[in-house]
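Hi again,

Forgot to attach this to my earlier email, sorry! This is the prediction with zinc ion bound. I've pasted everything inline since the attachment limit keeps bouncing my files.
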Amino acid sequence: MRILTIQMGLRRLRAQSGTCKAVGCSLTLGLLLAWVAWPADPLALEMRKTLQSELGHLEALYKHLHQYPELSFQEARTAERMARELEAVGCEVTTRVGGFGVVGVLRNGEGPVVLIRADMDALPVKEATGAPYASEVTSRDEAGREVPVMHACGHDVHMACLIGTARMLAAFRSWWAGTVVFVAQPAEERGAGARAMLNDGLYDRFPRPHYALALHVSADMPAGSIGYVPGYALANVDSVDIQIRGIGGHGSRPEDALDPIVIAAQTILALQTIVSRELSPFDPAVVTVGSIHGGTKHNIIPDRVELQLTVRSYRQDVREKILASIRRIVTGIAQAAGVPEHLAPLVSIKEDEFTPAVYNDPELTERLAKRWRALLGAERVLRGRPVMAGEDFGRFGLVEPRVPVCIFWLGAVDPAQYEAAKSQARKLPALHSPEFLPAIHPTLETGVLAMTSAAMELLGKPQVSATQSRVRGRR
Ligand code: ZN
Ligand code: ZN
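Structure tokens for the complex follow:
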């Protein structure tokens, strides 16, 4: 590729320049042209070289984190390790920000502030990957039960990529100017950590970001690729508890009772009309009744039935409309069934469990995608589709004045396994599955390169000439 560029440059120069007939002159100009049009920019080459020397450290860090996972709100040792790793690259580190949150600030002169976030918590899942570094950890959950613990959502990859990015940005500090705020966030799986860190002054005690970035592993994209979604990428997630109340009695005497099971059945079916009949087909949403509990025996009419719902949407007005409709339908059906006012159903929207939608700033996302295509090759950078899963990273963008955010997908499936799954139509283990095991390589390399280049795209340029900075960058 490079030789061809030089030859083409020479030929074009000779053809175009009637005044420059001497071969020596053509050659000098040709080489100059070839340098300017150098296909792989020297920074990218240097970055790949430096990354190679970092991989041993990052792989060991990843395996350690994978082997010793911690549940949400219990990330003490993970946070300690992240703090040490960030200190080692020269960050000013603060621990205990919103629980076990860690903030590392890397200052490098005047310029934009870029926040990069990784989540730290694992899940109550029994690992079944058979990996030599598989987790055998158990812990007590919030109810006091002994549960197995596993990094089944790839947060260990996210942390290793965060540290890899910190090490790369520290090594290449002569190429950029500004401040990077590294955030190791607790309790993402409970939708609580981002809010806790923000409430603890993340944007007041530390430099306020101009941009916030994150990545999440993908269980259905091959390692070596990344996916981006401009606009809404992940959904609003609401949890709703409903208690339908009636009057209990003997199963043989319905006339003396007010049966909450029948009311619940009517309610569940009526709730399905919110998405199908009340929303525009262009506003995606989900209303799922995931749990229903009522009654104890064949011949007893119970006095209550409890439902648990998950409600997904993207836009805030759609979210509000769905929640209002749920209240209206639940109340209305109870009234139609003759439930007296003092037994009206109880609807509780769990605000503390709400996760807002992630809206990837379209301009920012397209800008980064262009950078990634140049760095990784267009075939490895894929435009993805939004999903209805939740991620509390969206909160980093919602503090007024709003911060443009971008979360992108990092392919983590072993490429051979990916191809086999395609040809044999076998299902790949999903996120949260006991069998989900990211391919370490080239997932880590790709994540670190993508995140480092994204940060450098957004940070300022140093106040020295390009030549000087090239020399300094090689030291
Ligand atoms: Zn998860
Ligand atoms: Zn996750």
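The pocket of zinc ion (ligand 1) is lined by residues 153, 189, 431-432 (CB under 6 Å). The chain is about 40% helix and 25% strand.

That should be everything now.

G.
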